[in-house]
Amino acid sequence: MSADWNAEWRQQVLPTLAGENWDLIVIGGGISGAGILREAARRGWRCLLLEQRDFAWGTSSRSSKMVHGGLRYIAKGQWRLTRDSVRERQRLLDEAPGLVEPMSFMMPHYRGGFPGPRVLGGLLSVYDALAGRRDHRFHNAQQLRYLAPGVKENGLLGGTCFVDALTDDARLVMRVLSEARADGAVVLNGVRVEHLLRENGRVYGVQVEDCEAGASLQLRCGVLAVATGAWAERLRPAEAPRQLRPLRGSHLLLPGWRLPVAQAFTFMHEQDRRPVFVFPWEGATVVGTTDLDHRENLDQSASISGEELDYLLAACRQQFPGAEVTAADVLSTWSGVRPVVGSAAGEHQDKPSNETREHVLWQEPGCVTLAGGKLTTFRPQAIEVLKACADMLGRSFEDDAAPVFAAVPPLTIPGLSPGQWRRLAGRHGRDLPRLAQLLTELGHETVGATDTLWAELAFACDAEMVLHLDDLLLRRTRLGLLLPHGGADYFPGIRRLCQPRLGWDDERWQQEQQRYQALWQRHHGLPEIVQ
């Protein structure tokens, strides 16, 4: 993203939007909207993306961080979803090393437990066949004790190891948006779509509000793509049936030293026989996830409940009894709301974990809405949406299977280890030269014990449309999750570096800091009942 993508640029470009004739307006700045925008911009469409909060503010910064085929979908007979997922997983591994990385997953087996080694091995054989490569093996109990010290040993038969992938989901969104902008797309956060404009039964534009300044605009477009996740029904006609079932998934983040794992573990929770994961991420350890109906206001960030906290701590005790993990060990929490298309309504609904993760398209003249879907398959979902949009525009559209990401510029950055270079290249892609300039200016120091460089904070302030402090600490970087108390001990250094770059006066900084700390405590700390 070019260095001019900042608050000053935003103030200049907003008044010009109404005078443009947009081929496509995308509503929603998560991975689905970013993917749609990227594929449209690459084909030369004049397109605009609007996000009412911040990029990746919703589910796309609060997922389980996994880029995976969905092994359990095979057991449910969802072959197409699994096939598309494993293919897209491999595409992302190939195109975005350093951002999407392979991870070994281990499922321990216990006497009398399900699935056993043979059943899981059979499922993984199908999984590997769909992926076109064999990537699993069984380890006996003696081998597993060596590979996974601290795992529960009572009744242990061994464990099956297979390979999937992990990512930083918010940075994935930012990099996809960067590619779209490089191809001419316009991208704005803090712009809320109030309603759709319709004439003679067709959508022809949107009424929007600038959430920062309060100004209203009417924007016209040839076609509209709605990719707002759990909010997808908000802009539908009043008479349209309601089909979304918002499901909450919550996670704990522990210091890496408190529950050290060298690979991901997946196992069935004793309470409800659902799969739970414990895995290393960004130098810390993630425990997740839950899966339950989210009945709270969608306009508020989701938060972990006391029951979910107990459930995830019980999972730790179950699989790693010697670690004796408690609530006092938790660095931070996050909860995301999955936009699942429900199978039925009312008392006839399936268990949340039984609902399909397949996506659907809802169409009306001039508008295509994407409902459901998975992070891993954002590209084929975008292709499907754009084929429907192209039909409405009278254009042809084919999946040319071109790369999502441009090649990272060949660049040597003195003083960085190969691992650091790979990480920065993955997260910043074509913007790596600009980041390299900041590294020359600011040095290679990391923030605390994290892998995040101070230069990354500066780059985000200069060139990644930071509107609020939580944008910077929870999504452009993950310092608010990885540092104790949301990074409060580092506020003085963050302020010295970032306040002048953001153009905030002292009063604004104090307001942002207070707002951020209240938000963090409510949505990323522990539930009040256990504090």
Describe the structure in your own words.
With 531 residues, the chain is α+β, with helices and mostly antiparallel strands. It folds into three domains: 7-59 and 170-243 and 354-393, FAD/NAD(P)-binding domain, CATH 3.50.50; 103-166 and 245-341, D-Amino Acid Oxidase, subunit A, domain 2 (D-Amino Acid Oxidase, Chain A, domain 2, 2-Layer Sandwich); 418-530, Alpha-glycerophosphate oxidase, cap domain (Helicase, Ruva Protein, domain 3, Orthogonal Bundle), CATH 1.10.8.870. It contains 16 helices and 18 strands. A hairpin with a 6-residue loop joins strand 12 (264-268) and strand 13. The two termini are 41 Å apart.
Concise description?
The chain has 531 residues and is an alpha+beta fold. Helices cover 34% and strands 24% of the residues. Helix 2 (31-42) links the parallel strand 1 and strand 2 (47-51).
Number of helices: 16
Give the overall average pLDDT. 92
Q: Give the helix level as a range of percent.
A: 25-40%
Name of the CATH superfamily of the largest domain: FAD/NAD(P)-binding domain
Give the CA-CA distance, first to last residue: 41 Å
What layout of secondary structure does this protein have?
Elements: H1 7-13, E1 22-27, H2 31-42, E2 47-51, E3 66-67, H3 71-75, H4 79-95, E4 100-110, H5 117-131, E5 136-140, H6 141-147, E6 156-167, H7 169-182, E7 186-189, E8 191-199, E9 202-210, E10 216-226, E11 244-255, E12 264-268, E13 275-281, E14 284-288, E15 292-293, H8 306-319, E16 332-341, E17 360-364, E18 367-371, H9 378-393, H10 418-428, H11 432-442, H12 454-463, H13 469-476, H14 479-482, H15 491-502, H16 506-523
Parallel strand pairs: 1-2, 1-10, 2-7, 4-12, 10-18
Antiparallel strand pairs: 3-6, 4-6, 5-6, 8-9, 9-10, 11-14, 11-15, 11-16, 12-13, 13-14, 17-18
